[in-house]
Amino acid sequence: MSPLRRWTALVVLVLPVLLISIDMSVLGIAVPALSADLQPTSNQLLWIIDLYSFLLAGLLIFTGSLGDRIGRKRMLMIGAPLFGAASLVAAFATSPEMLILGRALLGIGGATLMPSTLGLIRAIFPDRTERRSAIAVWAAAFGGGAALGPVVGGLLLENFSWGSVFLLNVPVIVLFLLTGPFLLPEAKDPNPGPFDPISVILSIAGMISLVYALKTGVKGLDWTVLAALVLGIAALAWFITRQRRRENPMLDVSLFRNSAFTSALTINVITVFALMGFMFFLPQYLMLVRGMGSAQAGLWMLPLALATVVGTMLAPVVARMTSVRTVVMAGLALVILAFIIGTQLDTAATIVLFALLSAAFGLGVGLAETLTNDVILTAAPSDRAGAAAAISETGYEFGGAMGTAVLGTAGMAVYSSRVVETASLPGMDSESATAASQTLAGAHEVATTLPDGGARLREIADTAFMTGIDLVAAIGIGTAAITLVLAWRGLRSESRAASHAAAAPDEETMPRADEASADRAGATRG
Predict the structure, then answer these.
(1) What's the whole-model pTM score?
(2) CA dihedral of residues 425, 220, 476, 315 (deg, nearest 10)
């Protein structure tokens, strides 16, 4: 494949990645509008927000393995029309139930797309130096898309209905379907072994149950949460045991014996956990505390998206001069700096501090995530690229879902505990105080009904919200610091590899020892 064909194919591959990552964050800014239109219950709204990530995380291991079996390009051609159709269902939903269905179909469609895109990069770019740059573009689409979600959503909602945030997907999917069949190569495992339906059921049941338990458990424990947790752990334990015993496993769990692979995966999970958790609060800070409109708030989220893209594109360039470990640790240090700045937002007189936070956060996430994806792919034999990519993508989705649930719930718990006591304010009663304690938007809405415009309620609610952000930032500082230590210890082999590459540049384009042995094993089986 010529260089022009390779890079053109990459452009086609990042189209679905961009859409899926935007869909992870765009709904947050559209919730007030769709809530006013469809009037969902609190439980229905939870499913509208969460079901996408539930199914996406739960199905990725299966769809990644299926792509290795039937062909990753074929999986993309199956998943893209489903994602487009699901977008239409969600965009024109006339009831909460219809929107829940649309979000479920989006999760299923997204699960078929994500591992195949990253897996095909391994086939299109066999040279590791080129592959690092290609993964940087892929990561820029993923990280930048997540940061762009509020930007795109804010601009659309300023002029169109909430359904436009889903309708945006359709023309991009059409473009992908028109170009993908001609520009993308096919790649799959030449010796996939027999299909294992039991492993499929265990992986799906285990992941969905575990994600459900963790997302709902932070709101309070009950028997359904505990049952889901037990079911998830038991199913995944059985799944792992089964994979270790099979000659042709659906998921090569032996990959986790590689310390660089495991460390890189963990870094990805925690980095996305911090990013999505903090992004739950940032648009609300701009629109409610700062009083911006949706479009203006979206534009102020743009520095975060641009900084993320800059970080991802800069990572492979810097890695040529230093080690992967150094680049990742520098990125995590910037994430810690961003969280420290976040603790000062409540005292900021101008929006400049928010811009500095966005720049540090985006640049740090871009640097930390890009090269870890390369480590994950390189650690896996080429015929298991889809499975490795699925593990990486599952980590992304799991981290993102848990970031919103855990950090979002922690911050809002602080907010609620402080606002629920406002029943003693003039014009307030217990019912209005409870409504105000649910969300910051709810408090501002209640304030409009008070005789003095609710100035005191707004002040209490805004202060409580910023206290919640302070707690989230403190948790972020702690988790990022732990991850930095993990990177220092777990990516030592990548540091040594960089030193060897500097001494002998040709090694960078040679297969690694584990890849070569895997290729020889495959040839022997053949």
Answers:
(1) 0.72
(2) -130
CA distance 278 to 480: 13
Q: Which two tokens stand for residue 20?
A: 């899926």
To the nearest 10°, the Cα dihedral for 258, 261, 262, 263?
Answer: 120
Tell me, which fold does domain 1-191 have in CATH? Answer: Growth Hormone; Chain: A; (1.20.1250)
Q: What one-character DSSP code corresponds to residue 405?
A: I
**Chain centre to alpha carbon of residue 497:** 28
Q: pLDDT tens across 27-54, in order?
A: 767 777 787 788 786 567 767 877 787 7
Cα distance between residue 370 and residue 141, in whole Å: 11
Domain ranges of the chain: 1-191, 194-247
- The token pair that represents 69 in the structure block: 């079996």
Question: How confident is the model over 128-182, as pLDDT tens digits?
Answer: 778 778 877 877 777 667 767 777 887 888 888 888 989 888 998 999 999 988 8
The Cα 261–Cα 255 span in angstroms is 7
Map tokens 């082999």 to a residue: 493
Q: Which residue type sits at 481?
A: A
Residue 219: strand, helix, or coil: coil
Q: CA-CA distance, 454 to 461, in Å (whole number)?
A: 10
CB under 8 Å to 108, separation ≥6 — which residues?
55, 59, 82, 86
> Residue 129, CB half-sphere, CA atoms under 13 Å: how many?
13
The answer to whether the CB of 302 falls within 8 A of the CB of 283 is no
User: How many CB atoms sit inside 10 A of residue 355's CB?
Assistant: 16
Q: What angle do CA 312, 474, 328 make, to 5 degrees?
A: 25
What one-letter code names the amino acid at 318? V
How many whole angstroms separate alpha carbon 29 and alpha carbon 42?
17
> Contact 50/207 with Cβ under 8 angstroms?
no
146 vs 448: CA distance, rounded Å: 33
Which residues are CB-contacts of 3 (< 8 A; sequence separation ≥ 6)?
none
Distances from the Cα of 171 to the Cα of 12, 60, 327, angstroms: 13, 25, 37
Write out the two tokens for 143: 């990280």
Residue 271, amino acid: T
Q: How far apart are CA 339 and CA 403, in angstroms?
A: 14
